[in-house]
Design a protein that fits this description.
about 375 residues; alpha/beta; 8 strands; globular; SGNH_plant_lipase-like
Length: about 375
């Protein structure tokens, strides 16, 4: 057999093994998996299974640089969850909850519940059609996954399991941006509270959801901040910004949310004994790239890499079968909103090992693992 054919078969085997494994019994692995909640920035394909959702990335050119092609990830390649799983030495990508196969042995390394277009508030996803709100995501975890998980775990240890088995898992939450972009700042929103009141509402509801996860067994939390939403291509395009500037009014809303979430969520530790929580400031990580792209190895920090659709998503999503830029590793954004694989790699690496408090606070994921 030719060397080229052998190489292809080996690569295919490695990819298939990583993406389709169902469990691990590694004695040296400190974190066994992740349970992921949020919106499109961390969605691993749940919206693929929602018939009436317009927020889908299950078509080309999404996944152009991903081993399995279009998978429902809103990126040309991996999202930050995928990279974080690799850094944690997890044996496979976290499967989406909505996939009927995500049951039994397949959930041992965690489940992804995130839904593109969703938000902290239930009504936020209405513009995207059918989505799964954060509240429903947590109910899915409680009502479907936890019983399934307990049954499988207790079957493996023959009834001699401790009740703190979920302490070996990370609970990752990345949400909030859509509550501003698709709700508070939406043109159709005529009557609304002040920005500070709305932000207080969001953070209060999110912290209540974190408490629910704690009551269901969560102990290690990773919270991702809202990204600089005033710098995304769709925001600049809609307001016809031609000088490369970001929409600072949107960024100020994101900063208000991030600062309030950081202070309130971290204070939850005293109300949730035995828990640890870190705050990943993806806003700072992305903004530093946007403000000085060439210093970080990027050349375009304002435009999407793919041809955008004018039919759905209002300039947010890629056109089905549309063209893409050839230098995707040098672009910050892949479509009108979502980062490229290269930026997701940077976010996950910073979350995992950064020693800078303005990037990961009060510590990083690598250290959280051992807490």
């Amino acid at each position: 057999m030719e060397l080229k054919a052998l190489t292809f078969k080996l690569v295919f085997f490695l990819i298939f093994s990583f993406t389709n494994c169902v469990q691990t019994d590694s004695k040296t692995q400190e974190i066994k998996g992740m349970f992921v909640f949020g919106s499109s920035l961390v969605d691993n394909g749940n919206n693929n299974f929602l018939k009436n959702s317009s927020a889908k990335a299950d078509y080309s050119p999404y996944g152009i640089d991903f081993p399995l092609g279009p998978s429902g990830r809103f990126s040309n390649g991996r999202n930050a969850i995928d990279v974080l799983g690799e850094l944690l030495s997890l044996p496979c990508y976290i499967p989406p909850f909505a996939d009927p196969k995500t049951r039994g042995r397949r959930i041992v390394n965690g489940v992804n519940y995130a839904s593109g277009g969703s938000g902290i508030l239930d009504e936020t996803g209405e513009l995207a059609g059918e989505v799964v709100s954060l509240s429903q995501q947590i109910r899915n975890f409680k009502n479907r996954t936890v019983p399934d998980f307990e049954a499988h775990i207790r079957g493996r240890c023959k009834g001699r399991c401790s009740n703190d088995y979920l302490s070996d898992y990370l609970f990752v939450v990345g949400t909030g941006g859509n509550d501003y972009l698709l709700n508070y700042f939406a043109p159709a929103k005529k009557q609304k509270p002040s920005l500070s009141q709305f932000t207080e509402l969001l953070v209060s509801k999110l912290t209540r959801q974190l408490k629910k996860l704690y009551r269901h067994g969560a102990r290690k939390f990773v919270l991702f901040s809202i990204q600089p939403i005033g710098c995304i291509p769709v925001a600049r395009e809609n307001l016809q910004i031609s000088n490369g500037s970001c929409i600072e009014a949107l960024n100020e809303a994101a900063l208000l949310f991030n600062n309030l979430l950081k202070s309130k969520a971290l204070s939850l530790k005293h109300k949730m004994p035995g828990s640890n929580l870190i705050f990943v400031n993806s806003y700072n990580i992305i903004r530093s790239i946007i403000d000085n792209p060439h210093a970080h190895g990027f050349s375009d920090a304002s435009r999407g890499c793919c041809e955008l659709s004018a039919d759905k998503g209002e300039g947010i999503l890629c056109k089905r079968g549309g063209t893409t830029c050839s230098n995707r590793t040098s672009h910050v954004f892949f479509d009108g909103l979502h980062p490229t694989d290269a930026v997701n790699l940077r976010i996950a690496q910073k979350a995992y090992s950064s020693s800078l408090l303005e990037e990961a606070y009060p510590t990083n994921v690598k250290k959280l693992v051992y807490m």
